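Final report, closing paragraph on structural work. Over the funding period we assembled a curated collection of sequence-structure pairs, and we close with a single example.
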Amino acid sequence: MEIGTTQYKNYVGGQWVDSASGKTFEVTNPAHCTKVLATVQDSNEEDISKAVEEARRAFKTWKKIPAPKRGEILFKAAEILVRDKEDIAKMMTKEMGKPLSETRGDVQEAIDMGYYAAGEGRRLGGKTVPSELNDKFCMSMRMPLGVIGAITPWNFPIAIPSWKAFPALVAGNTMVIKPAEDTPLSVLRLAMVFEEAGLPAGVFNVVTGYGPTAGQPLVDHPDVKMISFTGSTITGHQVATRCAEQMKPYSLEMGGKNAIVVMEDADIDLAVDGVVWGAFGTTGQRCTACSRVFVHESVKAEFTEKLVKRAGSLMIGDGLDAKVQMGPVINEKALNKIHMMVTEASATNTLLCGGKINKKPTDNIPFAFGQYTTTYGWFYMPTVITDVDVHDMIAQEEVFGPVVAIISFNETDEVIDMVNNSKYGLSAAVYTANVNFAFRALNEIDTGITYINSSTIGAEIQLPFGGTKGTGNGHREAGHNMIDNCTEWKSVFVDYSGTLQKAQIED
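Its predicted structure, as stored:
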């Protein structure tokens, strides 16, 4: 299968195949939403079943390959990603919309995870412990689960699939992955990378399609031994329910309502930099995006003025344009949802800038804020809303767009409680020069990730990624425990005494 072809097929059992129904759907460029990038397979339960069967068959041999050898194949895949980084990044910008600098970072995360996971091939061990009995050996070892089903989102089209695939594969599992329907091309490209690296047929399979017709059959398939899901909270709850009914393990990474705290002693310019990057990077379409800013009343005026000025200066357009700093949102549905939430918030709070859909430069001239270089696309102006109460909708619900709410506070003792007043618990950041408060915040803020004097985004793959409360179900991706989700423990006892010995029994 050639890169850049108009029609892409599923990758099943080492072959590029059409969907069972023969149906396809179009993938469009959100920065030029009338332009079709490609057609991909509109798959159904039959396609999922074929992919799972191929993965199940491949598992029998893949698990027997020594883990160091599995790691060597994955290392080759990482090297190919390095070679093709620019091409993949450009393709990702076309299908997802974020600027090329960000898609390069997306591919780099996949590269980092590839190298990191490959090394686990020589560290994939258990533990040996002493026995309470003479002449008895005890140890524990990791065992692969089998076929793992992965459902991945559109905002990090190759990074997040890589977080799931590389650890699972080095541990000896096989995988069937259903990428987001908005961004399937990046995952199909990952399949090409694995194929070139020499991954055996059936170990990694890609089936494109929609959630109800492809995602749900993947979750429900009895031969899929674990589900790894990243996406919306609503869908995550559905996945959890269906997996629980089957007694099937699952890993969820869902939404966030992430906060930045700006203390009275903060470096204001640095804090503004952090909020601009956290709120408007990836057009606010990150689970770690900053959408709440708690600002001490004494510095609110200065901070707000600088933030609004920066938001208004952002160059918005096609991410392939080197001048562009913020791309489009992913699709029209997302655009309308963002605007609905901003409109509702503007009725009771103060809209300082943004709050408008901008599909093309001629729509809203002259612009009060923002510069535009693009043609017709799904664009939303960088939006800042102030005079927000911590209980307001805009301070509680995930927007997933370039929208940030400013909430003021006076008492240091209250702000941590205000940050924790959320059903989510993914990421938070504090800007302060006070080391005592910094460490207090690290201990008391209820999130899986906490930053000091940095934004809410910027996780590195050598540390666990995930959150608390409604953000997930306690599992973590990446980091030193990335293998935990895709293995199970086996305890082993070897008695070489030549007699029957009974642990814990006194004769």
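The longest strand covers residues 32-41. DSSP finds 14 helices and 25 strands in the chain. We thank the funder for supporting this effort.
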